[in-house]
């Protein structure tokens, strides 16, 4: 499976190729659409070829461009556990209006459970699903592709679990490991093998 890493302003966004389109994981900071379009052009990818967006958690550096991408016709896939966090991010920027953040509309989103995401990804030729992996934030999710990859957002590295006394983090990693992933794609830093 093809994975393309796009990094700007210290955050990684990823593109994965499905049967007939690109799926983007995370959407970077607000007011950076020009930078994203430039990186896509360098990779010879047209934004119109990206059909879906998954946000690992609704913090400014991961969901800042979500509505901008929706405006291009990209469908935002939201895990059912994340729904009310979209409003929290919108409210945050209403109180802190320094950036050109566009409120994320509640319409035209695909809200899915983990089971429903598995069915969706299967239809796209991908054997994986979006799972809840709280620890960094209560709305954190990871896209896991069985026996292959995990896109983990800001979940601390597995190597660091011994330094954390946090059962939630440990449980999230235990769940990821059940999918026998070989490589992890974090939102900050370089991808690494397990």
Topology record:
Blueprint: E1 3-8, E2 11-17, E3 22-25, H1 33-42, E4 50-54, H2 60-63, H3 66-71, E5 75-79, H4 83-95, E6 109-112, H5 114-123, E7 128-132, E8 141-145, E9 149-153, H6 167-177, E10 183-186, E11 192-193
Your description of this structure?
- By secondary structure, this protein is α/β, with parallel strands linked by helices.
- The protein is 28% helix and 27% strand.
- The protein is built from 6 helices and 11 strands.
- The protein has helices at residues 33-42, 60-63, 66-71, 83-95, 114-123, 167-177, and strands spanning 3-8, 11-17, 22-25, 50-54, 75-79, 109-112, 128-132, 141-145, 149-153, 183-186, 192-193.
- The strands form 2 sheets. A 6-stranded mixed β-sheet has the order 1-2-3-4-5-6. The chain has a 5-stranded mixed β-sheet with strand order 7-8-9-10-11.
- The longest helix has 13 residues, at 83-95.
Task: Name its key features.
194 residues; alpha/beta; six-stranded mixed β-sheet; five-stranded mixed β-sheet; 11 strands; 28% helix; 27% strand
